[in-house]
Design a protein that fits this description.
The protein has 406 residues and is mainly α. The chain has helices at residues 3-34, 47-55, 62-97, 107-117, 144-165, 173-189, 192-212, 217-224, 228-241, 269-278, 280-288, 290-294, 297-315, 330-355, 363-389; strands spanning 249-251, 316-318. Helix 1 (3-34) runs antiparallel to helix 3, helix 2 (47-55) crosses helix 3 (62-97) and helix 3 (62-97) packs across helix 5.
Length: 406
């Protein structure tokens, strides 16, 4: 088989897999839009609620602006197909992010790897609490704004890496402008990324200011200004979301504690187990391949970004009825996805090094442990998706069902 023929075969396999995935996503989202949306209803999700907001004229994001016309053009199927396209876009952007680690692999192979990795969910374990409650994972099937945020958020971060690369010399203003526009566009869908990105960037700029002793201040100032349009959008969105009296955000120490409403974070067993089940692969990479990982700026920044998002989610809560929604945890979700990309990239580079003959420090064993953890996440995610397709709620208590031989 010639190289050209192999390329065509890979493209055929990749496009077929993506087509099947897109059809499955469109079908799932259509069922979710037809569901009454109650906690115990089949195919329950946030999609119907977001559609109702748009129909009532509650416009607070680009999502609201898109789902209205999509519904007018194609009804529920119009929104379902639109969301399927956003899923495909997220997979394509993730594949682009893998390119430095898979520079020798053709584009269709990267797309297939991206598709498989993005099936990953928190790992299954006996009596592990809930599938979703308390978990932090990059792929979400039940929230309209997050699904639309994902590709633009990752594009914005990848563009930031390119813009930051020029900080050591003359700042590439074109790369800076592209990154700023993408960050603003991502914020227009959901503010979850910039809410963590802005503080992380501030810490990075302070560190650079100290390192360069102020010699790079002009570059640092311009880079810092990149978040201003996004902050402006956050203020506009807040005027809509926090319009009710007494609504807003507060430190968790200053609100009345309610363990039945604070379902995320370290407040109940299910949430703690959910968090631990989410971090198996990234923790394995950090522990077993940490020295390799720490050499790359992208890994270090993604870890910082995720750390800031987690700190905000643990320390801040919304007031009033929105306390139950735990919306600040969307920050760790999207930032974990960025961190997952870099963790997978570190693992793939280690695999390439082992294949090239580098075997020191039990590298093969460390790679195998990390790979087993990733496979565990992926298999668990496929089981989770099958259950969603069957009509189970995304908020599934593990103790209440049996899947195959479990």
């Amino acid at each position: 088989m010639t190289k050209k023929t192999k390329q065509r075969v890979w493209w055929a396999v990749s496009l077929l897999a993506l087509l099947v995935f897109a059809v499955a996503m469109a079908w799932l989202h259509y069922q979710q839009l037809c569901s009454p949306g109650g906690g115990n209803d089949p195919y329950t999700s946030d999609l119907g609620q977001h559609l109702a907001f748009a129909q009532k004229g509650m416009v607070y994001s680009t999502t609201s602006l898109l789902i209205g016309p999509a519904y007018a053009l194609g009804g529920r199927w119009g929104i379902a197909i639109l969301l399927a396209l956003f899923h495909l876009a997220a997979i394509a952007v993730f594949a682009r992010g893998l390119r430095p680690a898979l520079s020798q692999c053709p584009a269709p192979v990267r797309l297939l790897i991206s598709l498989v990795v993005n099936f990953a969910q928190a790992v299954w374990m006996p009596r592990g609490g809930y599938w979703y409650q308390g978990t932090i994972i990059g792929t979400v099937y039940h929230n309209t704004t997050y699904i639309m945020l994902a590709p633009f958020a990752l594009l914005a971060v990848l563009s930031f890496y390119r813009a930051w690369h020029s900080m050591s010399g003359k700042l590439d203003l074109r790369a800076w402008l592209v990154y700023t526009v993408l960050l603003t566009l991502a914020t227009s869908f959901k503010a979850s990324l910039v809410f963590a990105f802005a503080p992380a960037l501030l810490l990075l700029l302070i560190a650079d200011l100290i390192r360069t002793r102020g010699e790079n201040f002009r570059q640092e100032f311009i880079m810092g200004c990149s978040v201003l349009p996004s902050i402006g959008l956050c203020l506009i969105q807040a005027n809509v979301l926090f319009a009710d009296a007494g609504s807003g955000m507060n430190l968790i120490f200053l609100v009345d504690f309610d363990r039945h409403r604070m379902l995320w974070g370290p407040f109940n067993e299910a949430a703690v187990l959910g968090l631990l089940r989410s971090l198996v692969f990234v923790a394995a990479v950090g522990i077993l391949l940490g020295r390799r990982a720490w050499k790359t700026f992208r890994y270090r920044f993604s870890l910082l970004l995720f750390g800031v998002a987690m700190a905000e989610a643990l320390l801040l809560v919304e007031n009033g009825e929105r306390l139950y929604h735990a919306n600040l945890w969307w920050g760790p979700f999207i930032c974990f996805w960025v961190f997952l990309l870099e963790s997978v990239s570190v693992w793939l580079r280690a695999c390439a090094d082992w294949k090239s003959g580098l075997r020191d420090g039990y590298l093969g064993s460390r790679i195998a442990v990390c790979g087993a953890a990733l496979v565990w996440h992926i298999i668990s995610g496929i089981c989770f998706l099958v259950l969603l397709m069957e009509g189970k709620s995304y908020n599934i208590p593990i103790q209440t069902y049996h899947f195959l031989f479990f």
